[in-house]
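Q: Joint fold for the lines below.
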Amino acid sequence: MAYQVQWPSVIVGSLIYTDVNYYKIIHMYKNLKVIIWLAVGLLGTFALSTIALNRGESINALWLITAAVCIYAIAYRFYAAWIAATVLTIDETRATPAERLDNGRDFMPTNKWVVFGHHFAAIAGPGPLVGPTLAAQFGYLPGTLWILIGAVLGGAVQDMVTLFFSIRRDGRSLGQMARDEIGVIGGTAALIGTFLITIILIAVLGLVVVNAMKHSPWATSTVAATIPIAMFIGLYMRNIRPGRVLEASAIGVALLLFSVLAGGWVDHNATLRVLFDREGLPLAYAIIVYGFAAAVLPVWLLLAPRDYLSTYMKLGTVVLLAIAIVILRPDIHMPALTQFIDGTGPIFGGKLFPFVFITIACGAISGFHALIASGTTPKLLANERDIRMIGYGAMLLESFVAIMAMIAATVLEPGVFFAINSPAGVVGKEAIDAVAKINSWGFAVTVEQMNQLAKDMGESSLFARTGGAPSLAVGMASIFGKAFGKNLLALWYHFAIMFEAIFILTTLDAGTRVGRFMLQDMLGNFNKKLGETSYMPSVILTSALVVAGWGYFLYIGVIDPNGGVNILWPLFGIANQMLAAIALCVATGILVKSGKLKYAWVTALPLTWLVMITTTAAYQKIFSDDIRVGFFAAANDLSTKLAAGALPADKAAVAPQLIFNQHLDAYLTVFFVAVLWIVIIDMLAVCMRHCAGKPVLPLSEVPHSATQLDDLWVRD
Amino acid sequence: MLKRVSVLWQNIRQLSGDDAYERYLKHYAEHQAVQENLEPPLSREAYFKQWQDSKWKGMRRCC
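A: Joint structure:
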């Protein structure tokens, strides 16, 4: 009793001691809560209508933040709580795998804030930063709405239910759950899907880093310096002071910040400068070699220490950005909607529907998260009641990161934004042509303005720096610069580039390694020796295969005059949304099989939407006549021009490879959609059999056993 | 206030894995010793190697 009224008792003091007053207090407390939530709702509605209906000059970024926070709060308090209590029927008395299978290593009851930290660090990668930046070509509104609605009704639900089902199944992975609950076909599809999406993700991220380093001695030398720094920290943690993680990380972060500073000296030194001033291709080769080395070298030397450093950098920078936005309250200069919703956008071709939903995957809904939510996280959770906070809450935070990326992209003048992000193949190689083209779209920008900006940022040029990283860095630098000191713009810019590069490279090497494990696992079915993770010839063979896979896409992306991102990012988006659809299929199937047909819409609703957008996007990517959308259309266009001799020599030289790649991408898209529909039909068949009373695979949920943990000391 | 700072510090240490060895020793004392497993606990160095390798077996990072 006293516990429940603690909070209002502060307000009403001594009244607490009589019974009558107790009810009054409870009543007041309830009223107060209703009033507070009504206020949050009203504020959210007001903020949302302000950003949606504003057609004026500019709008303050604080409105986006306000709308986001109110929507997240309401969704978390009501929708997520309802799902947890009514749909999933979370059981606090049930022992979790962490308790039952506790081995002191991977299974271990862990403080909920620590689990939250691990989970968030694992799910939040470069995706929510790059996607919104690219999607800003449609204006700030479509992307923002999708990030908010998609996360609340889709992404966070997916993460939470996957985490729940995995916890009820001893922390089994998505692929295993698909096999156990739906069948072999679903399980195999999930496995192959995961492997392919990893390949494409790594390629596109590699491309983002290459584009950020191209002809930038400062960025290249700083990013290069992160490798020896990580190795030094690895040695430090392993041999000099074993296991002193925090101490080593602090040294590492200090060294990283120093490397940003030192990059400036390299940039100003005539002899060192040329060493790091490189074209795209040599940089791509360097990344390919690096990826191979990172997959073969022991984890403690490069992977693990880099991961530590990138996690601190990521968390620190995200917090810093949030503080800076709140202090500065910048105005958004991008219009709510641009004319590019008709599909003529320079950054990537394709109409608002479905391509805004494909471009922003992470931040709204991301299939990759299902792998984390059914990987390390379910093995750590001490009590089921924290599933909402970890599964739903962490995704909301990632969605918030995406909103901040959207703000950083849209505070730039639209002319500047398009000058940085439009590939040379669309606006022309010369600055004067690019500016004329962008002016013709109605966005003001001048060559002098861009040159001055490049000078401020310590770069030789900011034209056609595709991939999203440079424009995000310019946006972040201008926000940080205004909030914390304007003289340091170039430093802030390269800090932002280093911050993006370090965790892109972490995803790249961790992804290569995971891809290697998956491949070894698959090959192990044919040849036992190849399946051994420590058998060196197999390690080298599978690592080389995985690196060759993403290396190929990276190479094509670099030689593509249209920047490559316009091809690879949609492909990645389709693959990621396909994986999300598979995860939602598994969840829907389990809900139906558990006799919760009437609640199955909770996962079936986002599933239906994902199927619609991925199928439409794939259809357009395959059949569209628009050469900037359809793969076959682009390939045919290029071959006609090549045959007619209409291409300049440099383009003609790479045309055959580009044509081949367009065909490959088209077949890959066909494959993704086919996999998706196979899983859906498989799931529907299982559901219909169940509803008709026919036998289906039994639920693989482990039986209830009561928790023995006095969980207060573990959780809090 | 001081208590809160110390709790926060504990959480940061746990989050980063800084106290993993101490936790292992505690887990060892509670579980393995009871099971009459007479193998001595690993050294800090050996434990850290094992811990780091086991952490990197599966999917750890995403987009």
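Q: Anything notable?
A: The interface with chain A takes residues 11-18, 20-21, 23-24, 27-28, 31, 44-45, 47-63 of chain B (CB under 8 Å). The mean pLDDT of chain B is 80.
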